[in-house]
Amino acid sequence: MTFADYMNYAAPPGMRDELLHGEIILSPSPKVPHQDLCSDGEEGPRPDVFVIDRKRWAEASQSGGYPIGSPQLIVEVRSPSNDWADFEGIMR
Questions:
Q1: Which of 63, 38, 64, 67 is nearest to 54 (CA)?
Q2: 48-63 pLDDT tens trace
């Protein structure tokens, strides 16, 4: 798939998408409680990278759900196309 084709693509409800090496990769969007943890009131950012301890990850995996609570570390990558205003409110 070309990038132009991807720009016209709409992911199925409840899924998020990425274009990697010409293929669309779908993954489920976070469940409501998880999204509430990442929310800034009127915003809904998803971190690019997060770190969580193995025990909490294993518990979530065994239950078939998502980890409970905030990650120990969240990383948001700023690309050259981002304006610093894009990060206002999340960089505290």
A1: 67
A2: 788 889 898 888 888 8
Q: Mapping DSSP to helix (H, G, I), strand (E, B) and coil, where does residue 19 land? A: strand
Kind and range of the H or E run holding 20: strand 15-20
Tokens of 78: 């700023």
Classify the C-alpha dihedral 2-10-74-92 as positive or negative. positive
* Residue for token pair 């090496």: 21
In the chain, domain spans: 1-30, 32-92
76: left (phi over 0), alpha (psi -120 to 50) or beta: beta
Nearest to 45 by CA among 58, 36, 55, 56: 36
Please provide residue 29's backbone torsions phi and psi, each rounded to the nearest 5 degrees: -70, 155
What predicted TM-score, i.e. pTM, was given to this entire model? Answer: 0.38
**Nearest of 63, 4, 12 to residue 34 by alpha carbon:** 63
